[in-house]
């Protein structure tokens, strides 16, 4: 005996596929396992660092305004 | 390997583009969902390590590159013998335990029973038919795309798919168009 519905197989296969498809959470777990969280520094890291160090040194060594007034 | 956020973005785009197809391929090859996920991860890990090579490839070539890796991994997995044993165990287990998650209780039970029969019938398909069926149903690829991925003519893919559907229809007492 056969079932009359011609699309039964498509419907069953769609349900089967839905049950087996890689879920978003599984996919994200896989992606996170591959791509490291601590990615390498961006290409500009050296100039960025230099700039911050220079600014810090400049601030630390700048003569305070009262001292500048006394100096003059 | 030096990586950047740009690399991660390129990789994520590749991963999102191909993950369902690759997973469907392994599902067809090994039938064991857990092993299929492991092989997906290994495939994309290799893509990540060769990102400078695979990243710039156009869509079809990129798919072919990834599936070359996937096929080799499947072969290695078979050689280890674990895949075949796991597939057999998984098919036996899933045929008896899978339940539907849609519809009402009565319909759900009936659908669950039919899905279990479908699962068992898919497990009985020749591997080449099971792969194209899985890539079509779960991977949602066209015959042309499957052909590109597997390095086979689209006509061969369509023929295998047709044979698979006929066999499944017969196993489930369904009428298949053109049968």
* Termini Cα gap of chain B: 54 Å
Proportion of strand residues of chain A: under 5%
Stated plainly, the CATH topology of the largest domain in chain B is called Rna Polymerase Sigma Factor, Chain: A
Mass-distribution shape of chain B = globular
The chain pair forming the largest interface, with residue counts per chain, is: A-B, 30 and 46 residues
- What is the arithmetic mean of pLDDT of chain B? 85
The CATH architecture classification of the largest domain in chain B is: Orthogonal Bundle
The span between the termini of chain A is 108 Å
Number of DSSP strands of chain B? 0
Radius of gyration of chain A: 32 Å
Q: Which regions of chain B have little confidence, pLDDT < 50, spanning 5+ residues?
A: 99-103
Please estimate the helix content of chain B.
over 70%
Query: How large is the count of helical segments of chain B?
Result: 9
| SSE topology string of chain A | HHHH
Averaged pLDDT of chain A: 78
**What series of H and E elements makes up the topology of chain B?**
HHHHHHHHH
Beta strand % of chain B: under 5%
Number of domains of chain A: 1
Describe this protein's structure.
The complex is a heterodimer of chains A (72) and B (179). Helix content of chain A is 67%, strand content 0%. Chain A has helices spanning 8-20, 24-34, 45-61, 65-71. The N and C termini of chain A lie far apart (108 Å). Chain A has 72 residues and is mainly alpha-helical. Chain A has one domain (10-35, 44-71). Chain B folds into two domains: 5-82, Orthogonal Bundle (Rna Polymerase Sigma Factor, Chain: A), CATH 1.10.1740; 100-171, Arc Repressor Mutant, subunit A (Orthogonal Bundle). Chain B has helices spanning 5-30, 33-49, 51-54, 59-80, 82-97, 105-124, 127-137, 143-150, 154-171. In chain B, helix 1 packs antiparallel against helix 2 (33-49) and helix 5 packs antiparallel against helix 6 (105-124). Chain B is globular. Mean pLDDT of chain B is 85; it is low at 99-103. The A-B interface holds A 1-6, 8-9, 12-17, 19-22, 26-27, 30-31, 33-36, 39-40, 42-43 and B 2-5, 7-8, 11-12, 15-16, 19-20, 23-24, 27, 33, 37, 40-41, 44-45, 48, 98, 100-102, 111, 114-115, 118-119, 122, 133-134, 137-138, 140, 165, 168-169, 172-177.
């Amino acid at each position: 005996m056969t079932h009359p519905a011609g699309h039964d197989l498509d419907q069953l296969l769609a349900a089967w596929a839905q049950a087996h498809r890689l879920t978003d959470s599984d996919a994200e777990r896989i992606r996170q396992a591959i791509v490291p969280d601590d990615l390498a520094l961006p290409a500009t890291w050296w100039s960025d660092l230099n700039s911050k160090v220079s600014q810090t040194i400049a601030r630390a060594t700048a003569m305070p305004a009262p001292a500048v007034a006394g100096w003059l | 390997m030096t990586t950047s956020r740009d690399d991660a973005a390129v990789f994520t785009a590749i991963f999102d583009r191909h993950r369902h197809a690759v997973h469907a391929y392994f599902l067809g090859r090994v039938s064991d969902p857990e092993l299929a996920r492991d092989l997906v991860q290994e495939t994309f890990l290799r893509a990540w390590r060769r990102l400078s090579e695979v990243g710039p490839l156009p869509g079809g070539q990129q798919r072919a590159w990834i599936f070359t890796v996937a096929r080799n991994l499947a072969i290695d997995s078979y050689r280890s013998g674990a895949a075949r044993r796991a597939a057999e165990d998984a098919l036996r287990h899933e045929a008896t335990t899978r339940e539907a998650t849609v519809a009402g209780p009565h319909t759900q039970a009936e659908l669950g029973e039919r899905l279990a029969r479908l699962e068992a019938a898919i497990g009985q398909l020749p591997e080449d038919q099971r792969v194209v069926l899985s890539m079509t149903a779960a991977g949602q690829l066209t015959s042309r795309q499957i052909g590109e991925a597997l390095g086979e003519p689209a006509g061969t893919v369509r023929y295998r798919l047709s044979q698979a559907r006929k066999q499944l229809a017969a196993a489930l007492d369904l009428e298949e168009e053109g049968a």
